[in-house]
Structures are given as C-alpha cells and as structure tokens.
Write a structure and sequence with these properties.
By secondary structure, the chain is of the alpha+beta class. It has a single domain, classed as Beta Barrel (Porin). The longest helix is centred in the N-terminal third of the chain and has 35 residues.
Amino acid sequence: MMMQRKTVSQRAKRGDRRLAGMVLAVSVLCGLFLAANGWAGIFLDTTNDSYAILTGYGQSFPGWGMTTQRVETIDVVLRHNHHVIENIGSGWYRGFHSTIMELPIHIVTSPDVSTMIALNFLATYTFTADPDWQPYIFGGGGPVYSFADIPGMGARWNGNYQGGIGIEHPLNEAHHLLLELRYHHISNAGLKEPNEPLNSVKALVGFTF
C-alpha cells in the first residue's frame, strides 16, 4: 500500500513538473511575443484591442485528481485582449486569433479568508460568424502567489493552467457582455511538499470597455 501511494505521488510530481514546464514555456513565449511587438502598441495595430473586467465564483472539488480541499473563491479579473490575426477561415468557423493578458485576484472565502494573485497569458480564438453572439475558446496559464493558508498547499508561489469557453454579446458600441466557464488548476509542480493541487471550475461574467 505504501509503495502504491509513493508511486502515485511520484507520478503526480512528474505530471505536475511537465505541466508546469508547459505553462512556463507558453508564458515566456507569450511574454516575449508581447515585448518584441511592443505591448504599449508602438509596433502593433491595437485598433481592435479591448479591455475588460470580469467577476464570478470558483470552487475546487475534492476527489478531482489529487484535490483534497474544497476551496471557494470570489474572482475579479482585469484583462487586455490583443487581436493578432484577423479574418481567419470562412463560414461557421470564421473568426480571429487573439492573446489575452490577465491579472486575476482570487478572494478566498473558504477554508481561509485571504487572497491569491495571478498573472495569466492566454491564447484565444473567437468565432465571428454570428455578429450578436460570438463564442470563443481559450487556454494558457501563468504564476500564482497565494496569501491563503490552505491545507495541502506547501508553497506560496505556484503555477496555474486553465482552459475554457465563453461567449461575447454586444450591448452597445462601447461595451460587450462576456460570459465564461473555466477549468482551473493550481499546484507548485512538486517543488515543495505537500503539493495537493486545486482543480476548480469557475463561472465568470464581465464587460468590455
């Protein structure tokens, strides 16, 4: 039994390290891309870029993977969406590719009352065939710093990766409604023990401006 637990733990560590490496690579590449092309818009066409604020609720589920704690959060996310490639495809899959930089603040309400702060780099594809309801898919990740004392989390510095779906609906020329559902993972990649990940679902609503 002890050998089985050790084997599972070792596999989880290797898996976390691989995933952390992928998240780090994506984050670094996105960061280099944004820096090389002028994040402030010096060398980029930012005509169609947008900013947004989203808020919502998230919860981890014990038994989902190696997750043991039910952690509940109120999430506030500041976002910049930069259009990279316009007018891709035709028909139902017509759309555009964009990169998103986010500053999420996760307000932990249970089991501790505290916060976690992250920096996310996401790749997104938005389907534009319907001008009123435009679904999009996204994925990526980045670093997370936790001020919360959550059993099983052995480090303050962690990484996160996530993926999800959303839909955008114009309210007027200046503001669009955003609705999102995300899978969200946090762990420290086995760099410190204990390393019990948080596998969560988050539902968010927001507005562009």
